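PT: before anyone asks, these are the final sequences, not the draft ones from last week. 241 residues across everything. Please model them as a single complex and drop the result in this thread when it's through.
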Amino acid sequence: MRISETMPSQLELIDGFIFSLLTRISQSSFEQKVIFNIKLALHEALINAVKHGNRMEKDLSVRVHITKEDGLLTMQVTDQGKGFDFKNIPDPITPENLEKLNGRGIFLIQNAMDRVEFADQGRTIKMIKFL
Amino acid sequence: MKILVNRVDEVTVVILDGELNVDDSIVMREAFLKILKEGAKEVMVDFEKVTFIGSAGLATLIEMMQLLRKAGGRLGCCNINNSIRGLFEITKIHKLITIYENRALALKSF
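LR: through. Structure below.
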């Protein structure tokens, strides 16, 4: 299975976009926990791409590429922003960060997926789940 | 998202029904701010019908906990499913907001 889709940088479109992607990815054989984690990873990656990557500039878009083959689900989300320093992401569970309102997205993705990689100076996040 | 607000003695019980995704986290935040404006101090959020929460929903809960704490009140959550409870635990939010097994136990403790 291969899916390639593009969405504009608008936060209000994310929920519907995820619903449409999940309908195509999900199978009844998936455990609820697996579906929850796939949804969480997409949710966080798309918010980051729209809000922090493209800074909600409507002229910029977010590209999503998903493949499912050989027991492996790979989801790649790419924005058109300036990228970010993915090697120095603050840890949201240290005492000084625990009450901060932002900064949990990538941490949640890393916990929901089996492998997470960044490319293109942080503009692309690749999220892998063993099915 | 459907949000139902009940008053049980001094406790304001907020019953959520739906997913705490991007849009509905904003809806929940607005509902919370309205409750705070009306003077609520002891707030219990019932998650029985919540099937999903992302970072935006978690942030809203932390913000509400901070506002209630500042007002001398507190925020608790109950009836959380295993997936959401897992998120509370890995993000250590369960150290900021007390989680109760069910509404009856929560109301007894408040």
